[in-house]
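hey m, so remember when u said the tokens were messed up on ur end? i reran from scratch. heres the input so u can diff it against urs
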Amino acid sequence: MQGQARGDHNELSGTVHGGAVQARTVYGGIHIQAEGAGEGRRAHVPWQLPPSVRITDRTAELEALEGHRERAAAEGYGTLAAVSGLGGVGKTAVALAWLHGLRERFPDGQLYAHLGAQSAAGPAAPDEVMGRFLRALGVPTGQVPTALAERLALYRSLTADRRLVVLLDDAATAAQVRPLLPGGRNVTAVTSRWRMPGLTVDGCYAVHLDPLATEAAIELLEVTLADGRVAAQPQEARALVELCAGLPLAVRVAGARLAARPRRHLTTMVRALTEERGRLEALAIEGDHDVRAALDLSYQGLPDEAARLYRRLGLHPGPEFGGAVAGAALGGGRDAAGPLDLLHDANLLIDAGDERYRFHDLVRLHAAEKAEADETARERAAALRRIADHYLATATRAEEIVDPQHRTLDRSYGEEGEPVPAGFGEGTDAALDWLEGELPNLMAVIRVARPAGFPTVAWQLADALWPLFLRRKFYEDWRAADREGLLAAEELGDAVAECRMLTSGGMGELGMGDHERALEMFERAARTFRAGGDALGHARTLNYQGLAHQRLGRLDRAAELFTRAAAELLEVGDRRAGGLARLNLADIALERGLWEQAEAEADAAHTTLDEAGDAYNAARAATLLGRAHLGRDRLDLAEERLSTALATLRGMAAHYETARAVESLATLAERRGRTDLARERYREALDLYSAVGRSKSAHAEAVRTRLGRLDDQATDGTAG
């Protein structure tokens, strides 16, 4: 670990800015970075704010916001401001203009979250948003706490000494916002359609945006067109912006449509908008009818393919999307690049960066309305199924790359068959990064699939997410995905799918520490397999039940179940799962100090798993075998096995199992009197445990104790 003083043990995690002096142990996710001349930037500096857009006639509001910030800074407090107003009035644009202007004063980053008050999936949960913020601030995924209170404590700690800004966009309530307020003297802006008096107790300064004055709206229209028509037709321009009620979104949408038709007279747009505004009164959300009228006119002017894509993207359940998903929405293997550009140019899509797009909430509602009006029920269902199938096919491809042994159940697709998966680069990390980046969309698909009439997608997509959940520990999503997948499997009457959701969900519950709940799920799966006469499935559940009993400290019962699993799995022909049972038996024997038994079980497990092509679990077995050799003082054999296992596990980014191998090699070095090497390896093991959220585990505590003893010996001069 960088910055670790020789002879002192300080386990640090997270991100530290500047020098640090530490006594004893700090838990969390801190990484020390020494700063030399010309240095000083943090290792993790998020710049998440969307790009600014041009705003008009908001000088007074911006001055008020900045005045509030200066007063709060002078008094030594953080800044909290809420910007409210109608949909389309420019709340986000004003907040972005203010916050982007603070970048030099707040060099430690910008955090952004769309809180989804108008989202079809409902407002974003604070704990999910906070998890994203913690990862953006440099906390390893596996180290993000599962409990909201623990996330909040870590979030406030990491932001206490930083200088950053936070934008919480489209908030639903003060209760949703409050946990996301950073610590320290940072700046937070909240946008919402509703005023939020509940934030007053937090020192919030409220700014309410009214629609633009007529002259300011005309100026915005003139900037949007930039072709002289506004100056040449001033009365028509005035009539047009009055029909848009001074709402910047409506003005920009109308202006974008005119800009695409340079020969069209403004009078034509005025007449059309007048007619459309009257027709949409019955559909309007209060105050939003002018935006909807402008949107309807823009929609009518789209080419057929762009209009089709617009309304079908209104069916997309997640927060944002890229070109591959847009192509799936169109269907027929059509390229969506051109239509996407048209929709963006028409101000109907917002550029989310990295060739991805999202809707303004009103525009999404409008697109969904157009899908309802202009697509048949069959066409809507087919488009949504193609979108879901796209995500399922790509997630399945990622699953195959990360964990080919898990990929055993068939996938079923809609009438158009299996789509071509999206590309996401090469290797395990690229596959996991795609799954993590798309997780909000994947979870949204899981939630809508069953109500939409294709429950198979719900459980199969949850199944495909197993490698991500196992490696990167998104426990809340893991629990939610498997619960929805289980409901879908039950609705289908698919016992195999039901048991898969129970065993996968049970492993998630083990990870979250609810061992009794996990055992209940494993036992239910066993009963289901037995009732269906599935001897293989039932034998596999014995392994899972054994793991739950082992976590509960019932080693005799665990060993009994693992022994039964090893025998029964061999009888039904699953040698690989039988090898896993032998691996688990070796682990229990090691826990009890039965070195010869552990050696025999681990050796048998390694042979079986290696022959089955399961490199990951074969390496786990090799680690156990090395530890058994170490217990019998066969140091050369131990080093050989442990080194081989370590090489394999490092290549798989399996940090926890890597930590176990490194810890054992540290013990080996200590046995040989190589205390410097032992200290180095113990520290590496602690870093690895910390990276997967196990810094407080029994294994990590044991390593910490050994390292402390060696450090004390070095200080006393009794060790070399």
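this time it looks ok to me. DSSP finds 32 helices and ten strands in the chain. if urs says something different then somethings off w ur setup not the seq
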